[in-house]
Design brief:
There is one protein chain. By secondary structure, the chain is of the alpha/beta class. It has 2 domains: 198 residues, Glycogen Phosphorylase B (Rossmann fold, 3-Layer(aba) Sandwich), CATH 3.40.50; 181 residues, Rossmann fold. The chain is built from 17 helices and 13 strands. The strands form 2 sheets. It has a 7-stranded parallel β-sheet, sandwiched between helices. It has a 6-stranded parallel β-sheet with strand order 10-9-8-11-12-13, with helices on both faces. Helix 1 crosses helix 16 and helix 12 packs across helix 15. The protein is globular, with a radius of gyration of 21 Å. The mean pLDDT is 94.
Length: 385
């Protein structure tokens, strides 16, 4: 195959990221499989990205994620500076067959504004599509710019203009799914894990409250704002409360964290994360928002851990109730479902992950979308295909 793709990861974190990094982890999972299929990948990221690619394009030496806690007028130019570098690169060369963009809002707006002379673009929507109504509601990418979602439920809630530019959805994947059904059965403990960035939408306060009420040990694993370790947050002092996720943690979650029944361990990655998830009774997702993608959900299934969750967003697409997890629309039922999760079969979770959530499955799906987008057919024809 002769195909060169510029993969635009953005300026916030290196690829792969140091610990938590949702979009960057998706890219780190996708790119090796694309290259295995013969795709040449030019990565637009920060200079200290270590992912093996054919070329690396960068504006910043390292990740700018820490800048996100600064006031808007001090940070608003970061993504724009990165995109300006991407556009310069695209103007300077003629070998890019397609741009696969992952930068929220700014990536879509900038690449669309290049007009008909720009390369074909596939923009992946990783987030809540009720945001940016002026951009999404009036999008006009002509026959050159297309979007895809990370779940069908995400796209179903999209503004009409965004749906008109859609070529479908691709579920997220995890390398943990490769050969998951051949690994030894995990030895389960009693603890439950909530894995992900701590914020109101993820509902860690709900999980912590239910753990105290029902009496199951709960581990909260994920960053609070830019703080990846409890000691880092403690050292930041009161100034850290300027970050809304930090305020949420202190006001709504920390009162339940006793260091015994409910613990916050900060960001976990690699083997530590895998062992924590594989040994859990359940992975809990007490969601307050319509989760678009669910990376942590497919990771839990690949490690043989049933999912207990609020049935919102993509969760009903990823989890089969009664087989690979337990879902409810009633928040107060989650505690009892956690206790019932021990009756589910870990091997069923792992078999589901092997069938649906390997990187190879995701890469094949994206490769098919690349070919559709490159033909520059009208949006109506693409949707009918």
């Amino acid at each position: 195959m002769s195909l060169t793709v510029l993969m635009n990861a953005g300026p916030w974190l290196s690829v792969p990221p140091p610990g938590y990094g949702g979009i960057e982890n998706v890219i780190a999972t996708l790119v090796p499989e694309l290259r295995r299929l013969g795709v040449r990948v030019v990565l637009a990221s920060v200079a200290d990205s270590a992912l093996s690619v054919d070329e690396l394009v960068s504006v910043f030496p390292d990740g700018q994620f820490g800048a996100l806690q600064r006031p808007y007028n001090q940070v608003c130019g970061v993504a724009q500076a990165h995109l300006a570098g991407v556009v310069r690169e695209l103007h300077a060369r003629d070998d890019i067959d397609l741009v696969h963009d992952h930068v929220e809002a700014v990536g879509l707006a900038t690449l669309t504004a290049m007009g008909p002379d720009g390369p074909p673009v596939l923009h992946t929507l990783h987030w809540d599509l009720t945001k940016h109504p002026a951009l999404y509601g009036e999008l006009d990418g002509g026959d050159r710019v297309r979007v895809n979602g990370v779940s069908a439920s995400q796209l179903a809630r999209a503004p009409r203009a965004l749906q008109d530019h859609s070529v479908g959805h691709v579920h997220l994947s995890t390398p943990l799914a490769v050969g998951a059904d051949r690994r030894p059965r995990p030895e389960k403990g009693e603890h439950v894990v909530v894995l992900g960035r701590i914020n109101p939408g993820k509902g860690q306060d709900v999980g912590a409250r239910l753990a105290r009420q029902v009496g199951f040990p709960l581990v909260l694993a994920g960053p609070v704002g830019p703080y990846h370790r409890p000691e880092d947050l403690a050292a930041a002092g009161e100034e850290a409360r300027q970050n809304p996720d930090v305020r949420f943690f202190y006001d709504e979650v920390a009162p339940y964290v006793d260091g015994d029944l409910v613990r916050w361990v900060g960001t976990v990655a690699g083997r530590e994360r895998d062992e924590l998830l594989a040994g859990a009774r359940a992975a809990l997702f007490p969601l307050r928002w319509e989760e678009p993608g669910g990376t942590a959900v497919v990771e839990a299934l690949a490690l043989g851990t049933p999912v207990v969750a609020t049935a919102r967003g993509c969760l009903p697409e990823l989890v089969e109730h009664g087989r690979t997890g337990l879902l409810t629309t009633a928040e107060e039922e989650l505690g009892e479902l956690v206790l019932a999760a021990g009756l589910l079969e870990p091997d069923e979770c792992r078999r589901e992950a092997v069938a649906r959530f390997t990187p190879a499955v995701m890469a094949e799906r994206y490769l098919a979308l690349y070919e559709r987008v490159r033909h520059l057919r009208p949006a109506a024809d693409l949707q009918a295909a």
